[in-house]
Amino acid sequence: MALQVQTKTETLVRVEHLRKLYPVATGVFARARSFIHAVDDVSFDINRGEIFGLIGESGCGKTTTGKLLVRLIDPTSGHIYMRVSSDPSTDSQGEQFVDIATLEGRALKEFRRNVQMIFQDPYESLNPRMTIFDIVSEPLSIHRIGTVYEREERVAELLSLVGLTPPESFLFRYPHELSGGQRQRVAIARAMILNPSFIVADEPTSMLDVSIRTGVMNLMLDLREEFGISYLYITHDLAVARYMCDRIAVMYLGKIVELGPTEEVIQNPLHPYTRALISAVPIPDPTVERQPIEIKGGVSKPIDPAPRCRFYERCPIATDRCAREDHPPLEDKGNGHLVACYEI
Amino acid sequence: MTTLTTYPVLQVENLTMHYTTRKGAVKAVENVSFSLDKGEALGLVGESGCGKTSVALTLLRLLPENAKFLGGHAYFFRDGSDEAHARRAVGKPVKILVDGQGYQGRLLELGRSEIVLEAHMDGRTQPVRLGRDQIARLGVDLTALSDEEMRPIRWKGISMIFQAAMNSLNPVYRVGDQIIEAMQAHMPISVPEARERVAQLFQLVGLDRQLMDRYPHEYSGGMKQRAVIAMALACDPDIIIADEPTTALDVIVQDKILREMRQIQKKLNMSMIYISHDIAVIAEVADKVGVMYAGGLVEFGPSEAIFKSPVHPYTKALMSAFPSIKGEKVKLTALPGEPPDLIKPPSGCRFHPRCPYATEICEREVPQFIEHKPKQYAACWNPLM
Questions:
Q1: Which conformational region is residue B24 in: left (phi greater than 0), alpha (psi within -120 to 50 degrees), or beta?
Q2: For residue A187, how many other CB atoms are within 10 A of its CB?
Q3: How does residue B153 score in pLDDT terms, banded at 50, 70 and 90?
Q4: B-chain residues within 8 Å CB-CB of A179?
Q5: Which residues on A lie below 8 Å from B286 (Cβ)?
Q6: I want to staple A253 with a disulfide (CB 3.0 to 4.6 A). Which of A133, A302, B177, B191 is the partner?
Q7: Cβ–Cβ below 8 Å for A211 and B47
């Protein structure tokens, strides 16, 4: 069943039944017999100008989903449709999306221009031998845009946009001369320079310190306001997700277990996993007594998961049906709040 | 002798330590003072590089070679009747608590029934004789101990859970054996006794006792972290220093371990210093909070008071920069600028270039660390009242 979200807003990205399996290494000659189901039948839409959060613990498949969306890796099955042309006259009919797996040549290049990624660790993601100017202008030279002077102007413009001012003092410095927060701003400037319509941000602030992190988060919110960019915002931090995202999807072992408007999901979580996850978030107020919901065990690896609810072993409300039938489908419980659970 | 209901286990005074580098001295710990009482959990919070781990390493004297200790005291208290502790204190700076009165000075002589103290009183130095049985608590300055004298204090007096300590388990030994080895290095205990103690500790931290004969690779991340906590508890320390013990773990496991540590700490009436960058975690575990910025302690006091009405602008900024899943969703305010380079820290108050309340004096003079509200200390010229 394809996901039907009834909104008047324009859909930018549509993900349908996306799966990515990784073979578990066996031997040199033996064929892999087991697979890690990193992303397992995931469907969702992202609207234009929306910040869509992907939440979950390590190993839940959120980063794999992000990489699939920018086509850094190819899916095992399923489709990702994206509106590559930025022509505003087209309306949001499914047929007018392009399946990004089919893109080749010029169209692929156009897609690469339109879609950018910001990585978690700004200490790893910037080439230490390149100056800030080279790093930020590289996309321009790859896409053969502008003369050297125009590029320099554009880079300076972008650096001021991301708060690295005055830009002249940063242009010819190297990443090691910058702090973590400044580096992440450089990464954002590079992602922004080609005017993308969609950015996948994979834990962009989790390596940054509190006083720096807020600045980077506010910058990303401002860029959305100003340029109408859509983000897929990947994070394990629910408080950050609440601050950044319009809607969130909670992933568990490769599956989306709950999806909906951020405030709705956080204040009124329905899936037992989401409930436990939210109840485990510490509150920065010593007078608040939390009532954590206990769940058994820890996250396992989705290697050849049995055809039943992925959360079955740990679930406090599981019944026979949850073990007997396959993983439950996402069902709308009203107001676009979707849950994958038989018992809700 | 009256029994004290609350008494200090650690008093740190004006601790200062710099790292020598080729570019110059990194002023990592500057004039840090705080105290920790029996059964109390102190949360040290601050951003990376603010000196919170360096404070712990200075206390335990585990500093790297380029560290230069420049002054201050760290009095580690034990019961006045603890003979080994008293012997260790001879010739060292000490603090002594006698019936609600404190003496400070150097311990000159340790007799069977009395001690002689070269005490600093009323601005003079004079010898004072005290009966051994009068002494409630004896604090010895850890910074004055030799490596040899320091060794028995580690693990038994103060033990530390290091950041990412779960990766420090040796992969080729059984986890239980590693804990037994640490115990035998610090106290006379037979292997069967030690095994029994490990089994008890495993139960305390929520691990199955069968696991003690397993290897680290058979443990999950959370289980390893629990084993490391069991190891830190093995010698029954007075103080546990936990340096970001749960940061590498997932939300649900982190929360579980955090709550368990808090329960154990309360149950054993142990004192704890909990180091974290996450003020939400600190809010949950700490009775008292110390906020560090650029090598200095900027605010110190009871947790509830500090979270309700912080005195130092940095504390306030730290709190308003933190998103929460509870309460109204508000636009967070970002602090301008970045933490300073500790080789050339700003003059006066190190926070002044980023402080919205800074005035002219902040740039010129270092503010005193003083009590602004009951029990709430801060180093600030323009405290928020």
A1: left
A2: 26
A3: very high
A4: 338
A5: 286
A6: A302
A7: yes
Q: Cβ–Cβ of A277/B251 closer than 8 Å? A: yes
| Residue among B47, B255, B319 minimizing CB distance to A280 | B255
Q: Is the pLDDT of residue A343 over 50?
A: yes
Q: Do B334 and A215 touch (CB under 8 A)?
A: yes
Tell me the chain B residues in contact with residue A239 when contact means C-beta distances shorter than 8 Å. Answer: 280, 322-325
Per-residue pLDDT band for A27 (boundaries 50, 70, 90) equals low
Q: Is B250–A236 a contact, with Cβ atoms under 8 angstroms apart?
A: yes
CB A223 within 8 A of CB A185: no
Alpha carbon distance A323, B276 (integer Å): 41
CB B13 within 8 Å of CB B24: no
Task: Determine the distance in angstroms separating the CA of B67 from the nearest CA of chain A, rounded to an integer.
Answer: 23
Cβ pairs A/B, distance under 8 A: 117
The mean per-residue pLDDT over the stretch A256-284 comes to 95
Q: Does the ipTM exceed 0.90? A: no
Given a cut of 50, whether residue A3 has pLDDT beyond it is no
Rounded distance between C-alpha atoms, residue B162 and residue B143, angstroms? 21
Q: What are the Cα distances from residue A295, in Å, to A275, A301, A315, B337?
A: 10, 17, 7, 42
One DSSP character per residue, B65-91 reads: TTEEEEEEEEEEEEETT-HHHHHHHTT
- Residue B92: exposed, middle, or buried by beta-carbon count in 10 A (0-12, 13-18, 19+)? middle
Compute the distance between CA of residue B322 and CA of residue B333 in angstroms, rounded to an integer: 9
Q: What is the pLDDT of residues A230-248, one digit of tens each?
A: 999 999 999 999 999 999 9
pLDDT at B112: 86
Decide if B256 and A242 are in contact by the 8 Å CB cutoff: no
| Chain B residues within 8 A of A295 when measuring between CB atoms | 252
- The answer to whether the CB atoms of A298 and B254 lie below 8 A apart is no
What pLDDT is recorded for position A221?
95
* A240 inside 8 A of chain B by CB: yes
